[in-house]
Write a structure and sequence with these properties.
The protein is of the alpha+beta class. It is built from ten helices and seven strands. The protein has a four-stranded antiparallel beta sheet. It has a three-stranded antiparallel beta sheet with strand order 5-6-7.
Length: about 230
């Protein structure tokens, strides 16, 4: 019995030390990060979640389409809300998005890959208030296939007609990636529809429509990209 009284305080001290150590790992936001959260209108509850689960630095997100317009001398789109973004290693992007989506989607926010890193560069991940409307991501990013005369509006119309119950997990000016929620009765039929609408995913990607069908069936995802 006497030994128990010796061990217990040590255990309590060890536990308190762990808690204190864990608390110290939560980094406070810098003034620029606070400004980004305010500008993007991220509410306090979601800001607290992001502060706890994202050690990387945040900044106010600028859609790629806006950057392209700015370089061409055109004004940026007006956005009712902007996103905040942070950089992550490409190997961990999917897992990070899935983990955070569980916490912030119920609050009316979406999280998705907004830039793909190439040649060792990090991916960019964006958090955007969407009120659970995934097509809002495509409007915000102004995603289109303009070389095929596909506007953002016509893209959304086609996606809604396919009735796949999509959850967008990646998007930028000329590509999108989404999880498929509805069951698909014939993946080959869907693949032919996708190829007719977006030839580059086969001609510069899978190589055949059959391979595209198998890739979509296996991953339960829809990826569109226009060169």
């Amino acid at each position: 019995m006497r030994g128990n009284f010796v061990i217990l305080p040590v255990a309590i001290l060890f536990s308190c030390g762990q808690t204190k150590s864990a608390q110290q790992k939560v980094r406070d936001f810098s003034p620029s990060e606070h400004a980004a959260m305010d500008s993007a209108r991220i509410d306090a509850g979601v800001t607290a979640i992001l502060r706890t689960h994202v050690p990387e630095s945040f900044y106010l997100h600028i859609p790629e389409a806006d950057e392209i317009n700015a370089r061409s001398g055109f004004p940026m789109e007006w956005h009712p809300a902007r996103g905040v973004a942070f950089k992550v290693h490409p190997d961990s992007t999917t897992a990070r998005i899935e983990a955070l989506a569980e916490r912030i989607r119920p609050e009316g926010y979406s999280i998705y890959r907004s830039r793909m890193g190439f040649d060792g560069e990090p991916d960019e991940v964006c958090v955007l208030m969407t009120q659970q409307m995934d097509m809002a991501i495509l409007r915000y990013e102004q995603t289109d296939g303009i070389n095929y005369e596909i506007t953002t509006d016509s893209l959304i119309q086609v996606l809604e007609a396919w009735d796949l119950q999509l959850t967008v997990i990646g998007a930028s000016s000329d590509w999108m990636d989404a999880n498929i929620g509805n069951p698909v009765s014939d993946w080959n039929v869907l693949a032919r529809q996708v190829y007719a609408f977006c030839p580059d995913v086969v001609d510069q990607g899978t190589g055949t429509v059959e391979a595209l069908a198998e890739e979509m069936r296996r991953a339960k995802t829809l990826y569109l990209w226009w060169d």
